[in-house]
Structures are given as C-alpha cells and as structure tokens.
User: Which sequence fits this backbone?
C-alpha cells in the first residue's frame, strides 16, 4: 500500500483577509513550511536581474505599477516554483489578492494543492484597506465603488476556483483558525 502525502494548503482571498497571518499560524501548528507567493515572486524578479529593495510588498506593488503583464509573468514563475516545492513536500502557501485573475497560475496551483478561499465581507475588507490610505489600485474619485467592482469580480472567480470556502465574517485569528480547521 502506497502512502500519499496530505495536499498542500493554498490560501486565497482578497487583500487583508489574513492569508499570510493565518497561513503562518496553521503552518506552525501543523509543523509545515509556509511560503508567501509574493516572496517567491520577488525571488523570480531577482533572478531576472532586477534590483529591488528588501521589502516584498513595495516590490510587488512597484512591479505591478510598472507592468501588470510582467507582474503576472513573475507570478506564474513563482507559482511554478511553489508547485515544484509541493511535489516534494506538503506546505502552506498564501497567494496575493489578485492571483485569482492569473488563469495560468491558478491552473498550475489547482493541480498542485488544495485551493481554499478565505471569504470576508466587503465592508470589513474595505475598512481594513482604507486604514492605510487609498491604495493605487482603487480610483481616488470613487474608492469604495472601485473596490466593490474588484471584490465582486474576484469573489466570483474565487468561488468558481476554490475547493473549499471558509467564511470568516470578522473572526479573530483564533476563530479564523478554528473555521479553517473545521473545513479541512
């Protein structure tokens, strides 16, 4: 009888759903390695000879501002790296909020692990996002309207793609962890 490894857990959802925080927490609890796709994306960018600052998030934002196509190409390469890791071991991987719009990436990841959508309410996410000022991906003239357009589009894709949906609805970290574990 051949033993099979548990599938890797791939957390996806909108910006500020807690993918990385929850991912690190469940990885530690299960004694699994944790990866953030943005970290892997930065490694791919560095391989291309680009000299980016140390902080991953500003790097990812700058690449995206420079060229969405380049960003998605790097994101796909990072996804291939993650899938290669998942062939060897079970991991927890957190995706960026817009990764769902990269079809090639999602096909690779769907074959590599279990896609879990962390679903949070639009109002709560908008509040969290706006706390740091209006981000560049939102229309400064109508930030809430542009956020809701993105939210609706991406949520439809998340529901279409996810194997598991975890409805967080404002849960604390420990509450979100319990909800995630109940759904695994």
Assistant:
């Amino acid at each position: 009888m051949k033993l099979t490894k548990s599938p890797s857990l791939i957390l996806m959802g909108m910006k500020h759903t807690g993918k990385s925080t929850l991912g690190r927490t469940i990885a530690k609890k299960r004694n699994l390695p944790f990866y953030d796709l943005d970290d892997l994306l930065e490694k791919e960018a560095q391989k291309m000879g680009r000299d980016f600052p140390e902080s991953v998030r500003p790097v990812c934002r700058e690449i995206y501002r420079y060229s969405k196509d380049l960003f998605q190409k790097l994101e796909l390469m990072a996804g291939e790296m993650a899938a290669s890791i998942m062939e060897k071991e079970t991991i927890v991987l957190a995706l960026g909020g817009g990764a769902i719009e990269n079809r090639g990436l999602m096909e690779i990841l769907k074959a590599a692990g279990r896609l879990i959508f962390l679903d949070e309410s639009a109002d709560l996410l908008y509040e969290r996002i706006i706390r740091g000022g209006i981000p560049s991906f939102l229309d400064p003239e109508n930030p809430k309207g542009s956020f809701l357009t993105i939210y609706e589009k991406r949520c439809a894709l998340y529901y279409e793609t996810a194997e598991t949906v975890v409805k967080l609805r404002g849960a604390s970290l420990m509450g979100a962890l319990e909800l995630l574990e109940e759904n695994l």
Q: What stands out?
A: Residues 82 and 147 are 29 Å apart (CA to CA). The two ends are 24 Å apart (CA to CA). Strands lie at 8-12, 34-36, 92-94, 113-119, 164-167. The chain has eight helices and five strands.
